[in-house]
Amino acid sequence: MALKLTSPPSVFSQSRRLSSSSLIPIRSKSTFTGFRSRTGVYLSKTTALQSSTKLSVAAESPAATIATDDWGKVSAVLFDMDGVLCNSEDLSRRAAVDVFTEMGVEVTVDDFVPFMGTGEAKFLGGVASVKEVKGFDPDAAKKRFFEIYLDKYAKPESGIGFPGALELVTECKNKGLKVAVASSADRIKVDANLKAAGLSLTMFDAIVSADAFENLKPAPDIFLAAAKILGVPTSECVVIEDALAGVQAAQAANMRCIAVKTTLSEAILKDAGPSMIRDDIGNISINDILTGGSDSTSM
User: Fold this and answer.
1) Residue 299: its pLDDT value, please?
2) Which terminus in the chain has less CB density within 10 A, N or C?
3) How far is the C-alpha of 240 from the C-alpha of 247, rounded, in Å?
4) Residue numbers of the domain that contains 147
5) Does residue 170 share a domain with residue 49?
6) Which Pfam families match (predicted)?
7) In the predicted model, is pLDDT for residue 270 greater than 80?
8) Do 192 and 236 fall into the same domain?
9) How many angstroms separate the Cα of 187 from the Cα of each of 19, 114, 131?
10) Are 277 and 209 in a shared domain?
11) Which residues, in sequence order, are CB contacts of 191 under 8 Å at separation 6+?
């Protein structure tokens, strides 16, 4: 697996290269906050938002489909955040509507559905493109989105965590599995959502967010990086996702995927080909994760 740093065209000004041999997982008693390299590059909660670099991760081999009748070994679970751990997809769409309303552009929450799970820039920019918004500034829109979302929709301890999320993460850890948050959202939103959901950052062995990546879901980069940080082969990872982009990213990373119907219908999710489908995280059992389940909703 090769990892490289590329410089985006606008707000980022420097360019560095980071090889897989120079990337070392950060290990501490607290939650993972970034990468450290032997060249001194460190992407954390603070510096990732101000970093002059983006990570691009290349897969070692083409994606493969893993059949549930040969589920295989599981060593880690990668949780998406919006729509999986946190009941925040609708809240995000409402905050986005607020942003466009301030710009004088009429949109609905449904306009944002095709762009869910792709990161805030594409989430907002995709609708701006469809609506042909002239002079749209993605950086300014994203900044305003976070201001509205954090102030209005993701207040601390507001109870946006899905029932069963805390219990499943805890059960995974008790079984000796490594657990990570792997989200296309920026770190500022990840931290706010987890806090609002009552999920401690220290529960997770790694938290991987969009800030450091050039390619977001449906590209596999975020999942590949999470697996590398955890020190687990991609074939031993199970992803839990709610968005098409997330399911596609899991497949591209050669990982099994459990999809939840919190955002999209079962028919739409089936077309993406997850390993199995459940109603929400509260309906996922540890048996589903470890053995692939055995009922009719397994794909």
Assistant:
1) 57
2) N
3) 8
4) 89-153
5) yes
6) HAD_2 (PF13419)
7) yes
8) yes
9) 23, 22, 28
10) yes
11) 45, 201
Residue 296 lies inside a defined structural domain of this protein:
no
21 and 129 share one domain: no
Better-scored residue on pLDDT, 45 or 243: 243
82 is catalytic: yes
Q: Which percentage of the chain shows pLDDT scores above 90?
A: 72
Q: What is the number of other CB atoms lying within 10 angstroms of the CB of residue 221?
A: 27
Do 166 and 124 lie in a common domain? no
- Which is the catalytic residue, given 69, 70, 82, 186? 82
Which of 121, 153, 185 is where one domain is finished?
153
Last residue within a domain, chosen from 127, 153, 179: 153
- Residue 111 is among the residues annotated as catalytic for this protein: no
Rg of the chain taking only CA atoms, in angstroms: 18
**CA 289, chain centre distance (Å):** 18
Amino acid at 48: A
Residues sharing a CB contact under 8 Å with residue 37, sequence separation 6 or more, in sequence order: 18, 22, 23, 24
This prediction has a pTM of 0.76
Q: Using one digit for the tens of pLDDT, what is the confidence trace for 197-255?
A: 999 999 999 999 999 899 999 999 999 999 999 999 999 999 999 999 999 999 999 99
* pLDDT computed for residue 298 by the predictor: 58
Residue bearing tokens 């990373």: 253
* Coil, strand or helix at 270: helix
For residues 81 and 78, what is the distance between their CA atoms, to the nearest angstrom?
10
